[in-house]
């Protein structure tokens, strides 16, 4: 008898609001430990809102979010402890421009551990090795290419050896080769470290091939959750429009992003 994998993140009947308006609702989702999950969808549909809820930045209006079996805390102390187990790769990298790559990667270790300088130097060197940036250790962010800066930010996100890595649009601004390098690197880290990885993205063709699970956010909720193969084989008109990049279809473009007509009525 097969044993189901443990769950890294669980959403149960979750509703997320911003500015008094429901952005996402009725979210039920399990992300297995050790998996690599792509959360896809057009711009403006709430993918980053979902990420904010998992990190505890946004409190659900309804429902429950659990990370490694425990509900996301709502106290500052509880959030701090939980976030030590999360690595977050920000869309804009978030590197401090006045610090070298080494100093950026060392920041979480100085802030959240009592390790010696020698121990921190060893850990930083190992993280830079893991992302292929050992030779760039003493460079500043302004001296890095877009792909190198993204890898430096990834090394910093992994500094505390978190079991869960959240990536917010990691391919934004990268060329196809750099995008492929980043996705292959994430997959390698996922497989070698047993790292649970959630990738928020709208880059379908670069992301799906390296993921175990695909989730599509649209029309204020989860339009699909399953394997990448099942997603690509789907004949659902909404999913086909998104995957093919068609201008015409169930999804309509409204200014800042795609929005569902029912959600617009709720907001009114």
TrEMBL record:
Pfam families: ABC_tran (PF00005). One of its GO terms (molecular function) is ATP binding. Gene3D superfamilies: P-loop containing nucleotide triphosphate hydrolases (3.40.50.300). It comes from the Bacteria. Residues 9-244 form the ABC transporter domain. Keywords: ATP-binding, Nucleotide-binding, Transport. The keyword Mitochondrion does not apply. This is ATP-binding cassette domain-containing protein.
